[in-house]
Amino acid sequence: MSLKTVLILLGLALATIFALVCVLLTRERTPRTCQHLPLEQEDVEDGQSLVFADLTAEEMSQVVRYLQGHLGVPLVDASRARPSDNCIASVDLQVPAKAEVLRFLDGGGARPPREALAVLYFGNQAEPNISEFVVGPLPTPAYHRDVTERKYGGKLPYHRRPVTGREYLDINALIQRELKKAPRFLTACCESDGTNLAILTTAPRGFKSGDRVTWFVLFHNVAGTGYYLSPVGLEVLVDHGDLHISQWRLLQVFYNGRFFASTEHLEQEFVAGALEVVRLKQPQADSVLGSMKPRRPPGSPGPVQFEPQGPRYSVRNNHITFQGWSIAFGMNPNTGPRLFDIRYRGERIVYELSLQEALALYGSNCPGGMSTRYLDGSFGIGRFAYELVRGLDCPYTATYVDRHYLVETDTPKTNQNSLCIFEHDSSLPLRRHFSDSQSFYYGGLRKNTLVIRTISTLINYDYIWDFMFHGSGAVEVRVHATGYISSSFFHGRGTDYGNRVGPHTLGTMHLHHIHYKVDLDVDGQLNSLETQDMEYEFVKDPWSMQNTIERPHLRRERLEKEDEAAFPLNVPLPRYLSFVSPNLNKWEHPRSYRIQIISFAGKHLPTNSSMERSISWGRYQLAVTRRKEEEPTSTSIYNQNDPWTPTVTFADFINNETITNEDLVAWITVGFLHVPHAEDVPNTVTVGNGVGFFLRPYNYFNEDPSVDSSDSVYFSSEQDAGACGANPLACLSSAATCAPHLPPFQFGGFLNL
């Protein structure tokens, strides 16, 4: 081989090596398509959000041990406690005062002491009562103080306490004993001896303060199906107000439109042939009304959402960050999800965003249905947020978080995977434009949203609670209702109160009203309320003066007093309603956030109702008040069992104080009227049953903040739209090869029932 040939081959080899090195170096600098990208530096959690963190299971246990050793009275585990016992009803976080928190977060002040709020039922005292104690500091408690009188202006009467699981068990035992006194009737009406009938509570319990008298509705119970759609026509009224369960008694019986003094009386009428009985067969699991078992074998799988390079959000402890958003999250066992210190691009927009109450108010021509006004906070919106089903309740690859609670037991419970966080591609542009004149181009941005979700099962209904954070700086709050409708036995003029949905089942009309607290801090704590709406003004045509033109005119108004800012339910709101900062944007408009409500609520309870004041928040679709530490919630768990003398009356918050340049709170009611129909069987669907509200920037920025999104797409007619470098959508074909390895499906949601 000649020297020249050797040199040529050597040169080619060196060139090849150089090219390979360049390729390898390029690959090192550019992450592989499927490689998880590191989150931005802003996602680092500094621990400040822990000031809002829910109690850990160990902290709850420490509080229980402290109370057991320092109250000086015998305490019975609430899961076993009778009304005549003392017990710890619940333990939850005592949220520090806002001023203390802001000194810590914004002013470099000391971290507020970590404290718990413990609710105790004292039945074994000369004057039985409910007491609330603040216990701290955690994790090692050393003090407690009774805050009941400071919070409520006096002691809390014992009859206002929510009904415990132990109390329900004792009531059910009483009802079963009474049913045994009507054996022939039960066999004829229901093919039952009573033991296989489900018993459903109603609420409130009576007609005046001090009552604890409840209608219970009986249903056929078939394992694996919802009994709520199978009423047998039998309802019983039980007085369970005495401290001693031996004194409880059955007061009345209702069957198929008639009232009876007792089950013995019912049996006597049946035996005498004086009672019209509707003979129901015991339903079978494969044909019962309301079965959710699939009727077809599984088909091909539907679309699956995943992140090609891993989640673009960060979750650390109780803190979430996502593309400029920062949120502290938690869960109250009674009122459910609560968010704090919501910031966008480092600026606080909302100090607190929390669910307050969910009301379900029914109509029927049966006593149980017509008297039902469920205040779900009393039952436990957060407590009954169970494990979410991966791939159906939330995307399969979402982040799932456990929640701990201590209610009606001395031992903390965990609802694992009961809150989920995910980025959602809505398959809708957040904004877009196709230019077909002058120059030709396309620009747009996908509407990708961070979602925080939990789902509460409250007897028959399932509420899906969503909190969404958009790239435009908007916050969206939404609730969907699904689950089973509640029903009454169909008789007489039942269709005056709903629709017949089964052979003997009346789907009873009802309304869902949901209440939220929104403590907005728009560019600081001091805000005002401004409305804007349109009017037409009739003016002479300025270029001819011979004609008139109807010109839309913008009407702005600053509301100065709370009474002006209390907007009644079902009355049109001003189309623009904003929390306004005294500071201006670049264009000399006040930096503002707009409240936009999406709701089709039913009618509020008449104000002359004896229990209306307990739900007086429902008078208003929006009420704006000055923020006060002594007005932390719009209602109370004690309002359910004594709505006639409510522990908290929201209407009293509105007392015409000034709302100009003050720390303000928006209280928002959303809801819908539901008249059940055939398509609500087996379940109510979420389609059309979602309501909520938006918090939208309005002159808060100088332009739409989403213009800074790295997801933006732009290409012109002069570019190759199929080139990955010019158009990120052209890169999706390679990203689609990054399907993640999905973890095996697991579910433990039945463990804590």
Automatic annotation (TrEMBL):
Record GO terms (molecular function): copper ion binding; primary methylamine oxidase activity; quinone binding
Family: Belongs to the copper/topaquinone oxidase family.
Boundaries of every Copper amine oxidase N2-terminal domain copy: 75-143
Gene Ontology CC entries for this record: plasma membrane
Positions carrying 2',4',5'-topaquinone: Y461
Required cofactor(s): Cu cation
SUPFAM superfamilies documented for this protein: Amine oxidase catalytic domain, Amine oxidase N-terminal region
Gene3D superfamilies in UniProt: 3.10.450.40, Copper amine oxidase, catalytic domain
Catalytic-site annotation from UniProt: D376 (proton acceptor), Y461 (schiff-base intermediate with substrate)
Name under which the protein is recorded: Amine oxidase
Top-level taxonomy: Eukaryota, Metazoa, Chordata, Craniata, Vertebrata
Domain Copper amine oxidase catalytic: 305-706
Species of provenance: Catharus fuscescens (Veery)
The protein's Enzyme Commission number: 1.4.3.-
Keyword terms, alphabetized: Copper, Metal-binding, Oxidoreductase, TPQ
GO annotation (BP), single: amine metabolic process
